[in-house]
């Protein structure tokens, strides 16, 4: 065990402070000591990267799976999200063509 | 209408399958905990890194049939990471600082996770909802973070050398 880790591990259990100022000061000291320890920093970086990736997947899995399944009706802020390339290209193009055809048919009928 | 009904059936089937996979992750907490205690931190963390790499690769495969593997590795790693990280904090720092260190880790992790929302918004608005580039970036980050295994190996060697010196 290196010296920095040993110092943290061997230091006495922190006691509750009587004032807010001393409590904040004690906590800041604890965190500063922690972040000066390379073992803790490497552990922190590893955890942050892994945790971020997991949260990112959790937050976007429905969008990604929806894209793969070909769903088109997902909305963001009340607007249809440009989820898949074919939604923007094929889907919208077909819809526009249908509308144009209908408009032409109506014009011709009139 | 028939196409929509077929799509709804398909979505329901996939959601049902993913719903069955989700609780399986719980077993990984016990598995990695046991591996950590019996084989060492390197093995426990190695399982977490391995799951992360498989997940990061499979999430890049744009085929829905491959996604049960992505979801399985996600749920397995989610359980494994907390078991191993908490075990590591306790093993290195002891009980006296467990609360401060575990709390700091989770607080900083949660603060960084706030970035998920703006990144998702950018992907939806600027990148046509295409997550490949974001997932590729995360794969690169995962590969870099796998270097933590080397750091752990060094830490274990340092501890062994110090223990030999004490004897």
Quick description:
The complex is a heterodimer of chains A (110) and B (167). By secondary structure, chain A is mostly helical.
Low-pLDDT segments, ≥5 res of chain B: none
By DSSP (H or I, 4+ residues per run), the number of helices of chain A equals: 4
| Coarse structural class of chain B | mainly alpha
Trace the largest sheet of chain A across and list its strands. Answer: 1-2
Structural class of chain A: mainly alpha
Quick check: average pLDDT of chain A?
70
Note the beta-strand portion of chain B: under 5%
Number of strands of chain B: 0
Sheet with the most strands, sense and barrel status of chain B: none
State the domain count of chain A.
3
Biggest interface, chains and residue tallies: A-B, 51 and 62 residues
Termini Cα gap of chain B: 78 Å
The H-and-E topology of chain B, N to C, reads as HHHHHHHH
Q: What is the chain-wise order of helices and strands of chain A?
A: HHHEEH
Average of per-residue pLDDT values of chain B: 89
Shape of chain B: elongated
How many alpha or pi helices of chain B?
8
Name the shape of chain A in a single word: elongated
Largest sheet of chain A: 2 strands, antiparallel
Commentary on this structure:
- The complex is a heterodimer of chains A (110) and B (167).
- By secondary structure, chain A is mainly alpha-helical.
- Chain A has helices spanning 3-10, 20-35, 38-69, 85-109, and strands spanning 75-76, 79-80.
- In chain A, strands 1-2 form a two-stranded antiparallel sheet.
- The longest helix of chain A is centred in the middle third of the chain and has 32 residues, at 38-69.
- Chain B has 167 residues and is mostly helical.
- Chain B has one domain.
- Chain B has 8 helices and no strands.
- In chain B, helix 3 (41-58) packs antiparallel against helix 8.
- Chain B starts with a helix and ends with a helix.
- The interface between A and B is large, with 51 and 62 residues.
